[in-house]
Structures are given as C-alpha cells and as structure tokens.
C-alpha cells in the first residue's frame, strides 16, 4: 500500500465529513476508541491467562506411566465433531418437542 501523504489524508477527511457530517464524526471516533480499548483489554487478559496456563503446565511434572495403557477400540473413542453436532441437534429437537408439548398441555 502506498504511503499516505497530507493531500491524501485531507481528501479522506473531506469525504468522511461529506458522508457522515461534522456532528457525527466525534461520536464515531469515540465509539471506535472505546471499542479499541475494550479489544486491547480483552487481548491482554487472554495473553495473561495463556501465560498463567503455560506456567502451571510447566510447573507440573509430567505423570510417569509405569504400565502402557491398552489401546481403546475405535467405538469407544471420542465422537467426531460432525457426530457431536448431530447429537446436539437431536437433543435440541427433543427439547423443542417437549417445550411445545408442555405449552400445548
């Protein structure tokens, strides 16, 4: 992207004033500033939580396994995301049916 100079910034500012009006621009700038502050605070919290999590994981020694675990059959393995989604959809349909039956009763 080319560097923006003073003439380009003035043109952009004029277009914004024409589109939104001089009264709306300060409100929009405040809104953008607030959302950027909120976004920055949330990303900082996530980084701190990630650092805490990695620090606790590094502090805990890995459990020593004295005996090898037997392999689990594929049927006992965790269901795929598609299977989980299908099960949740079935549960939601059952709950909707129960709610409509209770509403009609």
UniProtKB/TrEMBL annotation:
Record's subcellular location: Cell membrane
Entry's Gene Ontology molecular function annotations: protein transmembrane transporter activity
Stored InterPro entries: TatA/B/E, TatA/E
Key words of the record: Cell membrane, Membrane, Protein transport, Translocation, Transmembrane, Transmembrane helix, Transport
Tree of life domain: Bacteria
Ranges where the record places region Disordered: 45-105
Biased composition (Basic and acidic residues): 83-93
GO biological process: protein transport by the Tat complex
A UniProt-annotated Pfam family: TatA_B_E
Compositionally biased tracts (Low complexity): 57-82
Membrane topology type: Single-pass membrane protein
GO cellular component: a single term: TAT protein transport complex
Family that this chain belongs to: Belongs to the TatA/E family.
Oligomer status and interactors: The Tat system comprises two distinct complexes: a TatABC complex, containing multiple copies of TatA, TatB and TatC subunits, and a separate TatA complex, containing only TatA subunits. Substrates initially bind to the TatABC complex, which probably triggers association of the separate TatA complex to form the active translocon.
HAMAP family: TatA_E
Protein name (Swiss-Prot/TrEMBL): Sec-independent protein translocase protein TatA
Lineage start: Bacteria, Bacillati, Actinomycetota, Actinomycetes, Streptosporangiales
Gene: tatA
